[in-house]
Design goal:
Structural class: alpha/beta
Strand content: 25-35%
Number of strands: 30
Strand order of the largest sheet: 3-21-4-20-19-5-8-10-9-18
Radius of gyration: 29 Å
Shape: elongated
CATH architecture of the largest domain: 3-Layer(aba) Sandwich
Helix content: 25-40%
């Protein structure tokens, strides 16, 4: 590859794309490979509970196809593209170990391409005021940040959050690992996102007392000084007991005299029990906006791996817990900082379903995908069913006052509409892609919204879509053009056209087009 002139991380096969192979591994392919650009349908499995408004989605299938569908199928893109407030992903850590429920032993180049491709797909789903959190340990976090800088932009970096995942020492390694890292990026950048994120609730409620029986309730004193020098914030304060106070050296009062006089008149200045102490502002408990989040999250506040394993074992006592599950309290903290009730949260590595479960309990909407059908059947779906039914007593259930409700749709990534001859490279339509099914996949591939308005099956602005079996000739073209409204155009898709068909379409409806299936569907032309 030619040098780009910018600082970037390179790796083997970076110019290629990754797709899943039938055995569950990955295969390197050219970016022009039809399997990369194809839009797979999401087939309905069933609905759990009541999901008439929330739009919660459990997607069973590879994240490559799940995210492509969310971005490119118009009915889904309307709901999710550019509207996801939080993306949380906990990708395989690539630690060189084989866990019971997934393969965490990917070669660096495979891991980096997999991550890069997912970030590229996730980026257009993020809301302008959204954020993406990538959860990793030390094995790949340094390389991950390079990839995130490249895909999302280094100016979009917000913070590296350190989570204390263990509370006991591990004496086996040279230095015992006790933390994971969450890399946080936002389209708004750190300073822009600051105005959209929420503060962390204060855990030190014992700081609030009521020594003077204030009718407004518990309060705590806030020092009246601030760092620096401002001439209009340097003045004498006389305490009720007669003591005279001036700001300490190197500091000034935190407000101008007029504001101080207002607070003094309303009883909001406290001079200690003796009436002569340094002045403080009274802050009532119901006024506390919480703390600005910081980058160190101890296990005492957000839980640890052992807590998470107990949560999973309580839900599924007959199954072995995941090797590194995430406690619900950790996800509660992330969700609280990044989102508000009703916002959309997305996780494309669902695993046991912690992200979706916590989002549901906190009144957020969610989309989650999991590649392994066995994991969906054993952990993800049963757990989410328990949440909907109010049968999950663990995790944050009590804190969220959750008693059940809502619902979700379970969908499955559909098969490819193409069959690829591995030896010749020829592409054929799959046997199942006929009639109505073929119309549906073509509409998705070309970005048309599905409509049932014969002879048309899709609409995109003033352009209609017609998908026909058999050979399309001049007579079929005349019939389709006659069905168009004034100023409408049509895209006609078929496996075979007569020589007269395309000239007739250009003559009768300038701007209309024919598309030969399958080859014209693989070129990425969605106009």
């Amino acid at each position: 590859m030619e040098p780009s002139g910018r600082l970037e991380l390179t790796w083997a096969n970076k110019h290629l794309r990754l797709i899943s192979d039938p055995e569950g591994g990955y295969e390197w392919v050219d970016p022009a490979d039809p399997r990369v650009s194809e839009v797979h349908l999401l087939h309905e499995v069933d609905t759990v509970g009541d999901d008439t408004a929330d739009g919660n989605l459990l997607i069973e299938g590879d994240a490559l196809h799940a995210l492509t569908a969310l971005n490119r199928i118009p009915e889904l893109a309307k709901r999710y593209a550019g509207q996801v407030r939080l993306v949380y992903i906990d990708p395989p850590f690539n630690t060189g170990q084989a866990f019971a429920h997934y393969d965490d032993n990917l070669e660096h180049s495979v891991w980096l391409s997999m991550l890069r491709d997912r970030l590229v797909q996730l980026k257009p789903l993020l809301a302008p005021n959204g954020s993406i959190w990538v959860h990793l340990d030390d094995a790949e976090v340094h390389r991950c940040r390079c990839v995130m800088d490249e895909v999302l932009g280094s100016g979009r970096f917000v913070a590296s959050v350190v989570w204390q995942k263990r509370y006991s020492r591990d004496n086996r390694p040279a230095i015992g690992p006790v933390h994971d890292t969450l890399l946080v990026y936002s389209p708004a950048g750190g300073q822009g996102w600051k105005h959209h994120r929420n503060r962390v609730e204060r855990t030190e409620a014992k700081q609030y007392r009521n020594p003077n029986n204030d009718p407004r309730g518990d309060w705590r004193p806030i020092p009246l000084t601030a760092q620096g020098f401002r001439a209009n914030q340097m003045y004498e304060i006389v305490a009720p007991g007669g003591a005279v106070h001036v700001p300490p050296k190197g500091r000034c009062w935190s407000m101008v005299r007029e504001r101080y006089d207002e607070l003094l008149a309303t009883g909001r200045i406290y001079f200690g029990q003796d009436g002569n102490s340094q002045p403080n502002v009274i802050r009532y408990l119901d006024e506390d906006e919480g703390l600005v989040p910081w980058s160190w999250w101890p296990s005492s506040e957000v839980g640890h791996n052992d807590e998470a394993k107990k949560e999973i074992l309580n839900l599924f006592p007959e199954h072995e817990a995941f090797g590194t599950p995430k406690p619900e309290r950790l996800m509660e903290r992330i969700d609280h900082i990044s989102t508000n009730p009703g916002d959309v949260i997305l996780d494309c590595f669902a695993g046991s379903g912690t992200t979706a479960a916590v989002a549901h309990k906190m009144g957020r909407r969610w989309v989650t995908s999991e590649r392994e059908s066995e994991t969906v059947a054993t952990f993800t779906r049963p757990r989410l069913e328990m949440v909907v039914k109010g049968e999950d007593p663990g995790g944050i259930t009590k804190a969220a006052d959750w008693k059940g409700g809502g619902g979700f749709r379970h969908v499955r990534v559909g098969p490819s509409m193409f069959d690829l001859d591995a030896e010749s490279g020829d592409v054929f339509l799959a046997e199942w892609a006929t009639n109505g099914a073929f119309s549906e996949v073509v509409a998705a591939q070309l970005g048309f919204e599905r409509v049932d308005e014969p002879p048309f099956c899709g609409r995109k602005g003033r352009t209609r879509l017609a998908v026909l079996d058999g050979v399309v000739g001049e007579a079929e073209v005349e019939f389709l053009v006659a069905a168009l409204d004034e100023r409408e155009r049509v895209v006609v898709v078929s496996q075979a056209f007569t020589e007269e068909a395309e000239p007739a379409l250009r003559r009768l409806s300038p701007g209309s087009k024919v598309r030969h299936a399958p080859h014209d569907l693989l070129r990425g032309d969605r106009r």
